[in-house]
Amino acid sequence: MSIEVGNILEGVVTGITKFGAFVELPGGKVGLVHISEVADVYVKDVNDFLKEKDKVKVKVLSVDEQGKIGLSIKQLQEKKSEERNTRSEQSGNYHRPTPRKQFNNDFRRNNNSVSFEDKLSKFLKDSDEKLTDLRRKTDSKRGGRGGGSRKYE
């Protein structure tokens, strides 16, 4: 079987690295599933999703002139979920997702009791206090302004 871009093949995981997993394909060729193509969620460690000698279905993403084969498991997972949705729509079992609940968090409508000037003065006061604290902490780490060894007259 020839390995061409877009083919869906079954292979065996032969090795796992921090950047992906090597999969042996039919015909003895080996391709790489990059860590970003393992799952449709964030993958910190490939070992959380795959183990050596696992049989996996992969989609061929690329084959370069040096013979390196780029593979994806994630794209097959997305395809399967799309197929399930279209099948369930056709069979009449499709349930539309419920719309997101609307929350009444609009701060422009709810805070009419405090004027803009009051909010601004509170913000400036808080900001000034934070800057003063920050300066005090950084100056003490540096030994104060000028190192504290000079006398000003």
Keywords:
153 residues, alpha+beta, five-stranded mixed β-barrel, 5 strands, 22% strand, elongated
Question: Which helices and strands, and how do they pair?
Answer:
Elements: E1 8-17, E2 20-24, E3 30-34, E4 55-63, E5 69-72, H1 74-91, H2 107-110, H3 116-142
Description:
There is one protein chain. With 153 residues, this protein is of the alpha+beta class. Helices cover 32% and strands 22% of the residues. The chain is built from 3 helices and 5 strands, in the order E-E-E-E-E-H-H-H. Strands 1-2-3-5-4 form a 5-stranded mixed β-barrel. A hairpin with a 5-residue loop joins strand 2 and strand 3. The longest helix is centred in the C-terminal third of the chain and has 27 residues. The chain starts with 7 loop residues before the first strand and ends in an 11-residue tail after the last helix. About 3% of the residues have low confidence.
Radius of gyration: 30 Å
Residue-averaged pLDDT, rounded? 79
Based on helices, strands and strand pairing, what is the structural class? Answer: alpha+beta
Element string (H = helix, E = strand): EEEEEHHH
Largest sheet: 5 strands, mixed, barrel
Strand order of the largest sheet: 1-2-3-5-4
Question: Overall 3D geometry?
Answer: elongated
Count of helices? 3
Proportion of helical residues: 25-40%
C-alpha end-to-end distance: 89 Å
> Spans with pLDDT under 50 lasting ≥5 residues?
94-98
- Strand proportion, as a percent range, falls in 15-25%
